[in-house]
Amino acid sequence: MTAPRRIELLAPAKTADIGREAIVHGADAVYIGGPAFGARAAAGNSIADIARLADFAHTYHARVYAAVNTILYDNELRQAERLITDLCRAGVDALIVQDMGILRLDIPPVALHASTQCDNRTVEKVRFLYEAGFSRVVLARELSASEIREIAAAVPVDLEVFVHGALCVSYSGQCYLSRCLSGRSANRGECAQYCRLPYTLLDADGTPLLREKHLLSLKDMNRSDRLETLLDAGVTSLKIEGRLKELSYVKNITAWYRRRLDEIFARRPEYCAASSGRVEYTFEPDPFKSFNRGFTHYFLDGVDAEPIGSPHTPKSLGEPVAHALRRQGAAWIIDRAGAVGNGDGLCFFDGDRRFEGFRVNRAEGCRIYPAEMPHIPAGALLYRNSDCRFEQLLQHRSAQRRIPLDLTLYEIPQGYALKLLDADGCMAIAALAADKVPARTPQSDGQRAMLSRLGDTCFAARTVTLALSGERFIPVSQLAALRRDAVAALDRSRRLACRPPRRREEQPTPFPAAELAYTENVANEAARRFYREHGVSVVAPAYECAPPADVPLMYTRFCLRRQWGCCLKEKSAARKWKAPLYLQYRDARLRLEFDCACCEMRIYADSRPATSDAAHSRCGSSVSDKSFNIE
């Protein structure tokens, strides 16, 4: 019988403590940034904290992956080498990397995962990375289920895909907009998020087509109803985005996906969890209660499956809860009694589709009393993007994860022994030197109860067997000490059994192209040597090293024409926009080009002055500062 395929739920960890909670709430693995060179500059952690997290994770046979996925400059290679060595000593199970120069450093043979910033979209690229020594490839978010299936069928490498969280409008690793406009490089973990700003769309004559909309801002991904599609396509790891997310977000979203996966595993025995333990929650997970801009499957079902933009606000919508009916004194009357609680944050769109928000001081039935009275259009839909009670609940202990154990107490010549056998087959035995004293009264029930008391350990008793030759009197203190010794031994045994995988051997495989453009992000001599050794003859420097003139600053599968019903492939398109099109934000002007054959949009810097009054109007954010849960 074929063994079930182990499926990994991979959660983000801004800190080691959040990573620990992700594991408690059901993650099979977490990814975390170290002190430097992670693609989230604001999410660094000390080596000691990562070691503490790895030690905890390995008890559950969960994994810890360190993100070392920025591009590196020559003067940083030795520092990166030392950092990676320290991370390996701390017990990380793999590195997530973008820079191929890392493969030429003197580092331990740790497993490597190719970051999505490597722009992993094709069979040829994924096959090359596999043969270059990567044990996992993180696929581009933009791939459809059929494209993922094609890659999985062609290359025997573990595939990781994103299933939840914020979406960059650009292909990951292919965005240079922030570096061009602010000097802050996304490939160095310093993205300024220009895609979340409000832009005015201009046609070739400078005529405003859309004013001050967040035209490059996307909804958030949620594929929790497509997990079986991904598993059947060949995916091994399901990744939640969010290394800048706080504790409540990680708890809630991890728990939501853990439940969805466990439901699948219960009826699909060909799949199983990649780590150990069963989780019990004190709350009901709900992705709409955590930060979200509305949800999309992105391109999983194809380019025309659904609208994916979030043009009216880049902030969190949350969950729709009620309609505002009318104002009554200091209160607003809503159409759902009890739908809102004290302290909740509510938001709505006004008549001009501006996003506004307010805090609820008090809620009584159908009446809500705002902290400051908002101007809500009658009948407007209210969203809750901060559920005060839910957030408070998640600030406390909200889950327990336990590994089932079978305990057997039996006699040995010197006294007694306790054997523990867990669900993974790990075993530990502890012995107690003691005289075998016949009991005057029945002891079995009390002894089973005592052995079952595993307290705050990660274990839970499944069965307790007393293999004794009759009733025996064993002092409670001795029996408790025997149990503690056995549990400590099993805990050590499990950690030792969870050994990190080793790096695959690199093969002399030619890279799929003989020449590399700036989009391969080569910023150091070690990376250039790697590519030359794999048959590349021309290696252009990374944009960060030598910005070329008039090149795309962003490559995206998202298309503004398609989003707004103006796709040139559709003869029935409602509107015709005169090209070229431009985006204007304050003094920054961007030119759009469309590759309709590939269904891609490219964004360039444009230095020509705008010809419309729209270019000189205020292009600042139209989003109210009163909104809550701003990312």
Give a quick rundown of the structure.
Helix content is 22%, strand content 27%.
Intertermini distance: 48 Å
Mean pLDDT: 93
CATH topology of the domain at 5-167 and 219-275 and 283-289: TIM Barrel
Q: Count of helical segments?
A: 13
By CATH's scheme, which homologous superfamily of the domain at 5-167 and 219-275 and 283-289 applies?
Answer: Aldolase class I
Structural features, described:
With 631 residues, the chain is of the alpha/beta class. Among the domains are: 5-167 and 219-275 and 283-289, TIM Barrel, CATH 3.20.20; 313-394, Thrombin, subunit H; 403-497, no CATH class. The protein has 13 helices and 32 strands. Helix 2 (47-59) runs parallel beside helix 3 and helix 5 packs parallel to helix 7. 47% of the residues are buried.
Pick out its properties.
single chain; 631 residues; alpha/beta; TIM Barrel; Thrombin, subunit H; eight-stranded parallel beta barrel; six-stranded antiparallel β-sheet; 27% strand; disordered C terminus
